[in-house]
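Researcher: Here's my situation. A collaborator sent me these components and asked whether they could plausibly form a single complex. I don't have experimental data yet, so a predicted model of the whole assembly would be a useful starting point for our discussion.
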Amino acid sequence: MYIVCYFGSRVLEAQINMKENSRDRKLLAISAVVGLAWVAASLVLKLLTLPIPARLLIGIVPIALLFYQIVAIFRYVRSQDEFLRRISLEALAFAFPVGLLGVFILGLLMRSGIAIQLDFMDAGYLLIAGYIAGYFLAYRRYQ
Amino acid sequence: MKNRLRVLRAEYDWTQEDLAEKLGVSRQAIIAIEKEKYDPSLTLAFKIARLFQSSIEQVFLYQDSQKARGV
């Protein structure tokens, strides 16, 4: 009986872990799809000369996916426990000022003609990098 | 904030994963609480205390930061 209970609990535990992993994998998959759509749309819009309605349509696809990703991230964060949610919030709190600082620095360097000319959308990458760095720092702080 | 979570967990012979599962939190949260790097919310503190059939004061020890530094 004990052995059955033990194995039962282990199977349950494995299922819980699998559920958490599948949630992680789902979010990663959505992020990968959004990233690919973003790169593909950027390349198509840059390389091909298309009529405006087609360009708008191509531009909307990654935006719609990005919207879905934001909803998925909200769901993901809501499913986290208070500790992991705190790390996510600290990462956001880190990403915003750091990203903003990066945007201002690059903007000033671009205006002064020192920095390479970057796209307006590159600010997004700064925020993402800030979030990843913030998550890493917050995670390390609590370990 | 100091706590006796590691001691209590050892008394009950639970792993960090066991405790995390019973409390419905991640193992990382248990690790951080045990290392006293993270103070849990009041709700989680009550859950922990109830799980170990103790009062919050028996699990968590609040120290005034100035007193702790001997000021």
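Model: Some features of this prediction you could bring to your collaborator: Residues 6 and 12 of chain A are 10 Å apart (CA to CA). The first helix of chain A runs from residue 2 to 47.
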